[in-house]
Amino acid sequence: MNNRLLVGASLCLGCIVGPLVGTARAQTGDTVPVVKDLKRPVLGPHRFVPNPVTEDPFPRTFVRNSLGIGTALDLPFTPEIVIGTDTIDAITGDLIFALLDFQYSQRIKEWMGFWATIKVRGRLGNDLGSLVAEGVTLSTGFNIGWMFKFLETDRIAMSATAQVTKGSFTGMNLFGFIQGVIDSQPVPLVRKVPTLWVGPGLRFAWAANTWLGVTANGTLMYGEGADRTQASQAFWRMSAAASLDFASLIHVPVGLVLAAQVASDDPNGESSNNSTGGLLRIAYTGRDDFVIALDISSLHTTLFSGTEVDVGATQISMRYYF
Amino acid sequence: MAITFRTACRAAIVTAALMSAGANAAAAQISVGAVLGVNRTGLSGDKPVGTSFSPNHGLIAGLVLEIPVAKGVAIVFQPGFRQSGANIGFQVPDQEEPVDSLSLRLDYFSIPILLKVITDGGRWYVTSGVDLGLLTSATLSTVSGSQEMDVNDALSDVDLAVIFGVGRMFPVGRPRITAEIRYSQSLFNLAGDSTGQDLPARFRASGFQLLAGVLLPLGGRR
Q: What percent of chain B lies above the pLDDT cut of 90?
């Protein structure tokens, strides 16, 4: 899936459709019912469909998990080489990604909560070429943070966050190892480095009407990544999402989320290059305390080796509110 | 649009209290006390090949000054003493796993500054904040204790850690007994100029702390 398409669609929904609908309702004097006493995040008339890319600013008690698989297809690891009349074929291949998230969030006060998240990302090639060229990587991360809701009106809510992410990046560098043997300069086959990030963030939510809501996140982090050639550095992440609740529109218990994110690094911690991504979520919203969703996401990022990839992924996600 | 700033005011009060704790102290019911506990820390960093870090135990002891700043919210100062460190294992012949060979012991004068939020029930609470540590002693020794080396100059003098904790209070008359577990993660690189000291170039401490304490409210009864 083209991630730029998702980015554009989300921005359109958030910045054009929402205000138009809101303006139209204001002009007609239409009053919208206020939904209250729900476990799922709700602001004014809108029940938000939660998503993992752009979290909402409401402290809630819940557990969520996501399990998925992603692929990056037909990657050119080495170009075609012509030597005289001989041609050495380009080495191409596919990469497979495994994704696992688990999060617990606890509301302490109506205006305050904390969360803890465990993330696991695995990557490996599915044939000899991609295995040799990109090796195998495993990144794990433990993220813990606080959220303080400091503003809530009948349409807008904002929270400030502070978080720490501690991770570990393990990479098996087959290509470098073989090259080292050829050059008689040993290169470690397996490299494991710890990572640590800390920083503040902002979360925003806007309830346009009963069926449309918009959320946005901004995060600034500082710390050490997997690339030890770089000193400690700062990076940022921004994301926005449109939440569409069809239950209030056509009485079908289905929610849709279109989300987009841009970051000054790779979200899996492999590199310090820019990345962009998008998410399409189709969720069952028939219950107040439970959401199950199918996520289709895309990510344009750079691997540790410097290879730029477009990753398409499919995930099954569940979230239960206490 | 009907704007309600109730939650905004609460958060603002908490933030402002950091600047005006002294002024509020006169009006609020301050609690004082002491805390004692165990610090189980490990190191994580760029380990040389064939080495490993394993957690070590140390002592935590300190005084407590708790200043309420809003209903169910307090700023807590806990100046005291904190021991941390880790065992460093090396690969040895005929052994599959690295064997603990060296022990690093770090002693800090520690000043945790925490935000304490008490749940609506009044018994459970969560804490979060920073722990500023000033290194007073650093010793690298063999596990057997036969040799010891002062590595104070090779390490950073200051450690800043973030703390996340959860605890419970048990009223026993006027005083309150507290039991708390915390996760602490150092943010600064603890290695100063460690080249040649058998220590890695980049490492941080992290671990769990188990604390028990007593708090005595000052002034009139609530």
A: 44
